[in-house]
Amino acid sequence: MQLKPEELKNRIKQGTLDPLYLFTGEEHYFIEQAVSLVRSHSLRGEEIQENFHSFSADDLDSDSLLALVQTIPLVGKSRLIVLRGLEKIKKADADRLVQILQRKILSVRMILVAEKIDMRTKLGEILKKEAAAVQFYKLFDDKVPPWIIQKAREIGRAISPALAQILAQMVGNDLFRLESELTKISLYMGKEKQISREHLAIVSGESRIFSVFDLVKNLGEKKVEPSLRILDKLMEEGTSQILLLAMIVRQFRQIHLAKSLVDRGAGIPEVSSALHMPQTFARQIVEQGRFFSYERLQTLHCRFIETDLTLKSSSCNPRLILENLIVEMCHDSSLLGSRKIQLKTR
Q: Using the 8-state DSSP alphabet, how is residue 180 labeled?
């Protein structure tokens, strides 16, 4: 029986527990949540300590597993056995597992976990027939900020979509790390409810990240003086020039893509989906695209490549190299003569 994650959750909360589960996919956070849900509805109190067992398939002792499932629990009525890494199970152990599953021992509930599994094998065939199977997919990038907002709400906090987007870009889509960051922030906040930029900067130790985002935003809006001030601050703090260039390149790739989508008739929802970001940020990118022609964006792309090579191979001051790039990005090339000469001679 194939179930969606929400169907699994509703089924368990309504009191229906299956004897055999197969959890597959790359999102281990959601898998572990599902395991915890099954456990909390299967075992109570001291039953958890006595009747919950976890094994790894790559070093499984199938004889010990068989002995365990044949032993009647001393406390409670059933055991819950979790077998992780099923894709790594040895053939002999897989054959023994098939025998165990075919016995359908009423006092045993099993959860088998794998990133993926070949359903053409004997084990796969019996799982296809007998297991309640759920596949857990990783969240797309544009779904991570809403997840952060919901997770913050669950722990009694609030976070704006903008800060949720920044936290997602700081940490990525590792949900375990994101949950850990939110927990640390919540502990630091005390009685406050609204998560601020300062909370993120202090607790996550990533105060420079806000300046990086401010930098690329100002560049997208052709604001040269604020961009140079932020660059100076970041360079003084020791931010990697390669990281700064990578962030700038990423921003202008997004601008180019958004501009081409809008010119083909796409609206903000379509741009948001293509860029994997909330509509608020997609709208900002679209607005920034109006400052740059396609020809200008192509010229800047070539300059990014040149700047990358210069940063990696030249003895010139990295700050001057990036300053020169920023001025060129924000002004027409006709305004750049004196600054380029300055770069070459310093």
A: H
Write down the pLDDT at residue 333.
43
Which residues pair with residue 20 across a beta bridge? 110
**d(C-alpha 112, C-alpha 103), whole Å:** 16
| Spatial contact of 126 and 16, defined as CB atoms under 8 Å apart | no
Least confident of 228-242, 301-315, 327-341: 327-341
CB 231 within 8 A of CB 323: yes
On the CB side of 196, how many CA atoms lie within 13 Å of its CA? 8
For residues 132 and 40, membership in a common domain is answered with yes
- The whole-model pTM stands at 0.62
Locate 324 and state its tokens.
Answer: 């020169």
Structure-token match 């700081």, residue found: 170
Largest Cα separation within the chain, whole Å, is: 86
* CA separation for the pair 231, 152 (Å, rounded): 32
Domain housing 103: 2-136
**21: CATH:** 3.40.50.300
Based on the domain organization, do 228 and 171 belong to the same domain? Answer: no
CA distance 81 to 112: 8
Mean pLDDT for the chain? 85
